[in-house]
Specification:
The chain is of the alpha+beta class and 156 residues long. It folds into 2 domains: 66 residues, 2,3-Dihydroxybiphenyl 1,2-Dioxygenase, domain 1 (Roll), CATH 3.10.180.10; 54 residues, 2,3-Dihydroxybiphenyl 1,2-Dioxygenase, domain 1. The chain contains 3 helices and 9 strands, in the order E-H-E-H-E-E-E-H-E-E-E-E.
Length: 156
Amino acid sequence: MIRGIHHVGLNTADIDRLVAFYRDVMGFEVISSGDWSKSELIDGVVGLKDSAARHAMLRAGNCYLEIFQYSSPEARDATPLRPCDRGYTHFCLDVTDIDEEHERLTRAGMRFFRKPGDFGELRAVYGKDPDGNVVEIQEVLDPQAASAPSHLRALG
């Protein structure tokens, strides 16, 4: 039985910078960190040979982020995905005052696509973190909508 999503994983070229952003700007708490190298168990789990990395697990409420910086194998730089590309597209953070958070995060260097949009039951906007990962922030205006499948149903 699947209980839900536990965490989102991000890979970065600078773990200290990205952890600092999510800790200091976004308010996540670092709950664990460490590193590994030459682990047959981890190599088997992640499907890589001779892997080595630093990692950190962060938490805000029930949202967890696992951030990695691999030193082996060498990571490839890839253009960050756009919301319409296949694969990971974004993760969403729930906020209590989207206008205040939009301004605060913009001042902290996050780049948003526009100002928050109003979907009736909630307001939302997508932006990019310092690595270019797409992050959505949303404010639920109607408590009954908190369990709604998606704000996209407001469009249909």
